[in-house]
Amino acid sequence: MLRRTILRGALAAATLASASFGAMAQEPIRIGLILPLTGPFSTTGKQISAAANLYVAQQNATVAGRKVELLIRDDTGTADVTRRIAQELIVNNKVTAIAGFGLTPLALATAPLATQAKTPMVVMAAATGIITERSPFIIRSGQVVPQIAYPFGTWVAEQGMKKVVTIVSDYGPGHDVETFFSDAFKKAGGNVENIRVPLANPDFSPFLQRVADSKPDALLVFVPSGVGSQFMKQFVERGLDKSGIKLIGTGDVTDDDILNPMGDAALGVITAHHYSAAHNSPTNKAFVEAFGKANNGLRPNFMAVGGYDGMHVLFEGLKKTNGEGGEKLVDAMKGLAWESPRGPISIDPETREIVQNVYIRRVERVGGELYNVEFATIPNVKDPSKTK
Fold it and tell me: Which of 209, 213, 231, 211 shows the shortest CA–CA distance to 222?
């Protein structure tokens, strides 16, 4: 009698467990995507959301045998809003992961929540080096600014330039560009003068006059994605395009999203970056074609590729965990390597940072349009802020 009772209890427990597992297996995997879709940085949000939607559609919105729901939220580029949305997605919507984060302050505001809730957080755009150090649950799929700026400083010095003035936006990524470019350039024997400009609504005119007075070999500029056209307009208005001072920068200033409207003033500008829509590979050509087809001919930029690869790292991780999140998902994403539209990339298992090629590009007219045409490659660059 006692034995029958125990067996009935065990069966009931097994049935409940099976029902619970079955219910979980039927539940969709929800991924929260938090982006600035309105406000001054809305182009970042629109590029990433378009690329994320494309990737999910190409996978038939399914991974590990379960449907995937992408919950896209607009944080307007405001850190307090980002944090509140992240909390709602984790607590109320029970997302398996959060992703997006268009600017460094937005990612930093959310990092403690990822740690407390043990929710994986994929940073697709924000690029300051310190971000991944703020939570062991953060994986980066876009870029790390020092990864671009440091090898570029060395490359510029190797071209024989002796004096460079830098103009950077006054916030985390700008400070990283200034520090890491200057360190590398000075180590190679160069001389640098640094200028910072306000992040919001900058008037570049007085700073460009200082550059004209200083007469450097080159002016290096860093501004957030979308602001490059405003800078270029004032660069031309001040006559610096005819001064003999070379204009160089990280790829943000000649962002693919805004490059064509800059016109001939952008021709010849040399930048270092991790992605160009003109990257010459079959994988990229397929990506550019699919992206344009899904978005009324829109050209993808580096933000889009960060979003596309961010979804890939999540999907590949979920395949390895059979849909489970938390620490297992973070561990599953570490060390992943694949062929991206930008070239070969991987996730550093030690730092959770992306490892990728850095390309030196020149703005050229190709088929009637302006593109960043790559002509040199610095392969497999890790974040130097974590390897120095």
Answer: 231
